Amino acid sequence: GILIVATKNKGKVREFQHAFAPLGLTVKSMYDYPDLPDVVEDGATFAENAFKKSRAVGDALGLPVLADDSGLCVEALDGSPGVYSARYAGEAADDEANNLKLMSELERLKQGEDTGQPLLSPARFVCALSLYDPADGREWTAEGTVEGWITSEPAGAGGFGYDPLFYLPEYEKTMAELTLEEKQSISHRGTALRRLTEKLAAAQSG
Ligand code: ITT
């Protein structure tokens, strides 16, 4: 079967493909439906934005759709960039521009004082998933988070987005240094996916 995910983020697509392949599901993304209008992500929360995406695409296609809204919340920045993570450095910002902006904001906070410490602030990744079925109008939701530190020493070529800056003390690695498998086992997205799957399984058997 196929599973439609309302995303244009290739990093997310790769992770969903990896997660759903064992279930025999092929993931389709917005690259497979290029004519759909863009969804305005102006919600106040990750959950709201995820629902905006799953509902808009689900209603347009008349098929069940999964959406992911996620981001990085940095303690020293009072939770920023949060729901603005994708456009932290501006509307058309890419991962590199967003990472540079994050580093410069945190360096600016140190106000010239160099502590020599690479770990700049505690942070957490958040992922909100929304699965919407236009047939009955029902929405299924789940969230996941993972805690780490923003490092001034980016490392790793795996993952996407802020992963090279997200240091996990227990692994002594950044998220970008983990394999897809390892990332999935601890990430905000992996946890949210396991929670969503559990909810769906419980509803099926109940
Ligand atoms: P779609 O809305 O099309 O799914 P997007 O990239 O715009 O794609 P979001 O609005 O959810 O997605 O923004 C997520 C932001 O958080 C974006 O900057 C990502 O790079 C970052 N992010 C989300 N999950 C991440 C992860 O697992 N690792 C690193 N960065 C992540």
Automatic annotation (TrEMBL):
Entry's EC annotation: 3.6.1.66
GO molecular function, one term: ITP diphosphatase activity
Residues binding substrate: 7-12, 70, 160-163, 183, 188-189
Co-factor(s): Mg(2+)
Annotated catalytic residues: 69
Gene3D superfamilies: 3.90.950.10
Residues the record lists as binding Mg(2+): 69
InterPro entries hit by this protein: dITP/XTP_pyrophosphatase, ITPase-like_fam, RdgB/HAM1
Top EC class of this enzyme: hydrolase
CC cofactor note: Binds 1 Mg(2+) ion per subunit.
Residue runs in coiled coils: none
A Pfam family reported for this protein in Swiss-Prot or TrEMBL: Ham1p_like
Quaternary context: Homodimer.
UniProt xrefs under PANTHER family: INOSINE TRIPHOSPHATE PYROPHOSPHATASE, INOSINE TRIPHOSPHATE PYROPHOSPHATASE/HAM1 PROTEIN
Family indicated by similarity: Belongs to the HAM1 NTPase family.
Name used for this protein in its record: dITP/XTP pyrophosphatase
Taxonomic lineage of the native organism: Bacteria, Bacillati, Bacillota, Bacilli, Bacillales
